[in-house]
Design goal:
Helices cover 73% and strands 2% of the residues. 26% of the residues are buried. The chain is an all-alpha fold. The protein has a two-stranded antiparallel ribbon with strand order 1-2. It has one domain. The longest helix has 24 residues. It is built from nine helices and two strands, in the order βαααβαααααα.
């Protein structure tokens, strides 16, 4: 048996480092030497293809971290199976800076979208598996939010992959749906109540 508190502590550190590393790819070129305000502003605007994936990845990681801390369990210890899935989840989290760099540099190519969206899809699937095997899981709205956010990440990842076949440059916008998860959930619950 393994201490859940120690796993949670390491998880917080891994998320913190991964989220910090994301910004390292958002920088002006070393040979950039603006001569006036307009050139500096243009140089900053030219960072958009890297800045958007940074914001997107930071948001996805932040939402995953929030979803993780919302899961409530009375268990102080977890099994080897849980730890194995947890390690896979953490491995996927640590790879987010890499896939963000790839999509920030080559986002106009469909394979970059496939890599990034496939990666986020795996994060969501493994996260849902972790929730399913969490011992002594407390039921409630927090658990519903966690599972719903995982499903939105899966759906938006699949949508990004599908869009990449016709419009790779705009496919990443599908993942922005994750920021609307609370509204999507509220809307879907209203629809379920109306039926």
């Amino acid at each position: 048996m393994f201490s859940k508190a120690r796993l949670d502590t390491l998880s917080d550190g891994i998320f913190g480092v991964a989220m910090t590393l994301l910004v390292l790819d958002v920088r002006l070129p070393e040979n950039f030497h603006p001569h006036d305000n307009a050139e500096l502003i243009q140089g900053l605007l030219d960072l958009w293809p890297k800045f958007f994936p940074y914001v997107l990845s930071f948001g996805v990681l932040g939402l995953r971290w929030v979803a993780n801390i919302e899961v409530r369990t009375r268990a102080e210890y977890v099994s080897r199976e849980y730890v194995n899935w947890w390690l896979l989840y953490q491995l996927l989290i640590t790879c987010v800076p890499f896939t963000t760099i790839v999509v920030g540099t080559y986002g106009h190519f469909a394979p970059a979208i496939w890599l990034y969206a496939g990666h986020t899809l795996l994060i969501a699937a493994v996260g849902l598996r972790l929730t399913a095997i969490t011992p002594h899981l407390e039921q409630g709205d927090h658990l519903d939010r966690r599972q719903f956010s995982g499903m939105v990440l899966i759906a938006s990842s699949l949508l990004a992959i599908a869009l990449s076949f016709v419009y790779p440059r705009g496919a990443l916008w599908a993942l922005a749906l994750n920021f609307a998860t609370p509204f999507i959930r509220k809307w879907s619950r209203r629809g379920a109540v109306a039926d």
